[in-house]
Amino acid sequence: MFIDMEVFFKRVYTVAFRLTGEEGLAAEMAANAITHAVNKLDEDYKATEDILQLAIIELIKIFLNVPKSHCNYNLKGIQRALLELKPINRAVLIWKDVLGYQIDDNIPVPDCTYEELIKQLVHGRKELKEYISRLEVALTPETQRT
């Protein structure tokens, strides 16, 4: 099954933005990942789910090599909560919970066993939940009146 190229580009960029929270960096990372994936396109230059997964794999590899200082921490809500996670937790959580891939589906995290990745996923989910809980408490009407 083929994916419209515009949809393909938007999906890769969206994942890059969720990883970084910064438009310029996300665009640059998405372009690099797409360029890498284009080499794998069929002769009709049509993208498939497999090519999308390859692009996301490349995107996560790129992201894990980006210095943390390049990420934008001036965002709010879920995006901000994701950016509070360690890069490995963020990458695994996005891979599994945002993209819906299985942990054993070629996730590009070097030197980590399946068990370690599951630990990172569980830890990332816990931190995300705690951050959102703190945010909800801070935004309740009772706390805003004082």
Main sheet, how many strands, which sense, barrel? 2 strands, antiparallel
Give the overall pLDDT as a whole number: 80
Assembly form of the protein: single chain
Q: If helices are DSSP runs of H or I spanning 4 or more residues, what is the number of helices?
A: 7
Q: Strand-residue fraction?
A: under 5%
- Tell me the helix content: 55-70%
Strand order of the largest sheet: 1-2
Low-confidence stretches: none
CA gyration radius, whole angstroms: 17 Å
Please render the helix and strand layout as text.
Layout: E1 2-3, H1 5-20, H2 23-38, E2 47-48, H3 49-64, H4 77-84, H5 87-98, H6 114-139, H7 141-145
Antiparallel strand pairs: 1-2
Helix pairs in contact: 1-2, 1-3, 2-3, 3-5, 4-6, 5-6
Describe the overall structure.
- There is one protein chain.
- The chain is an all-alpha fold.
- 68% of the residues lie in helices and 3% in strands.
- The protein contains 7 helices and 2 strands.
- The chain has helices spanning 5-20, 23-38, 49-64, 77-84, 87-98, 114-139, 141-145; strands at 2-3, 47-48.
- A two-stranded antiparallel sheet has the order 1-2.
- The longest helix has 26 residues, at 114-139.
- The protein is globular.
- The protein starts with a strand and ends with a helix.
- The mean pLDDT is 80.
